[in-house]
Amino acid sequence: MHLLGPLLLLLLLLGSAEPRRGPRSKAVERSARGHVRGKGRPGVTRRQTEECKEYMEAGEKYLDCQDRQLTTVKQDWPKDIHHLLLARNKIQVLRDNMFAQFTQLKSLDLQQNRISMVEDGAFSGLTQLTTLLLQHNEMTTASEEALLPLPRLTYLRLYDNPWSCLCPLDSLIRKLQLPANRNLGNYAKCAEPLSLKGQKLKKLNVDLLCEEDKRPETGDGRRPKPPPKIKKPEATSMCHTYIFPRPLLDCSNKDLNSIPSDLPSDIVKMDLSNNNIKHLKPKQFLLSKDLKLLNLSSNSLHHIDTGAFAGLLYLRELDLSNNSLHYFQYSVLEDLYFLRKLSLDNNPWFCDYNIHYLIYWLKHHPGVHYTGLICSEPQEFRGWRVVDYVKTYNGECPKDKQTEGTDTGQGAQGGSENEAQEVLADMGEGQGEILPQPLKKKVPNTFEIIRLS
């Protein structure tokens, strides 16, 4: 019994001490969890790597790492990729062997970074590379040595870099100017010296480069520099250029007020939707001869000049939906020989004599699938199909002035209405106030032939 008393006292003391250790144990748990998170930091790196989108298309593997704030490539990226997209990151220097692990690479997109220096061995190991995009960077000089590891290179973009056209650039320019390299370095221009500013590298007299180095220096030992000029960003610098799987210039949602003047000539698709382009002027797409799809939707577009689509011989799809178009001027569509799809939805089409040209053109191009031709004005025709309005309009011509055999009100199928429309079209531009007229009745012959039996 004497021993039992102290034992009970000891048990009570241990029980009272347990709550004090409770909070301490929770703190330990919290710190332990924090320690686990710290150990998980390599997992964060994996998640950042996983942000790059990996996908297959046409049997080839793409790794899309665009807009990731990257300053270099990651060593844990898959090495069997064929196309690496690194546009719009923060890469400043291309180091030797930077891409050597990607031995199967066919295209490398480095546009819109901050690249100012390319070491001679930066592209070592890329023996399969055919396409290299370096436009919209800060490169002033580079050597031919950097391109030597690329025996299959057929497509190189260097424009919108501040090239310093002096002696160090000599070897690169000579390579670009070889007849076999017709797709290397197109549109790249000199930024300095002042005497060569604006000249294309492809057409530059190479002998002038080193002569510029011999120009007299100023008293402080430096060559005089041109006065600083604030560079206004080119419109295409704001756009995203994609080469694979198809060449695409994405200028949507860039607050553009006009068509960019420096459009690439080899673009197949061009997206200019959701801007503020209100007027299309003649020959603005003249250099984009390979264009097959043009999206101009949602621009508040209200006027298209004759010749605006000049040069777009191969255009297949044209999207003009969600604009402010009332009608097309005569011959606006005449350059679109192979158009197959025309989107005209959500435009306030005005159903009067001006709308006839559009229907006339569509009837003579039955292979064009079009949508959205509904009258908005005037009130009496609102909601009508434009083609139905045109039938009614022509059907109201007085009978005594119609051509013999004209099927009144069925002009969509009859050949005589087409003839009448051709007469209207022949009026040309500037005859808008003259209403469409049917062909005049033929004057009967003044003599009669009688067959004698």
UniProtKB/TrEMBL annotation:
Q: Which SUPFAM superfamilies match?
A: L domain-like
Q: Which InterPro entries does the protein's record reference?
A: Cys-rich_flank_reg_C, Leu-rich_rpt, Leu-rich_rpt_typical-subtyp, LRR_dom_sf, LRR_TM_domain-containing
In terms of superkingdom, the source organism counts as Eukaryota
As given in the record, the signal peptide range reads 1-19
The name of this protein is Leucine rich repeat containing 17
Per UniProt, the ranges with Polar residues bias are: 405-418
This protein's UniProt keywords: Leucine-rich repeat, Repeat, Signal
An annotated GO cellular component: plasma membrane
Taxonomy of origin reads: Eukaryota, Metazoa, Chordata, Craniata, Vertebrata
- Which PROSITE patterns does the entry mention? LRR
In this chain the LRRCT domain maps to 161-211, 347-398
Where is the sequence biased in composition, kind Basic and acidic residues? 20-32, 214-223
Q: Where is this region: Disordered?
A: 20-46, 214-233, 397-422
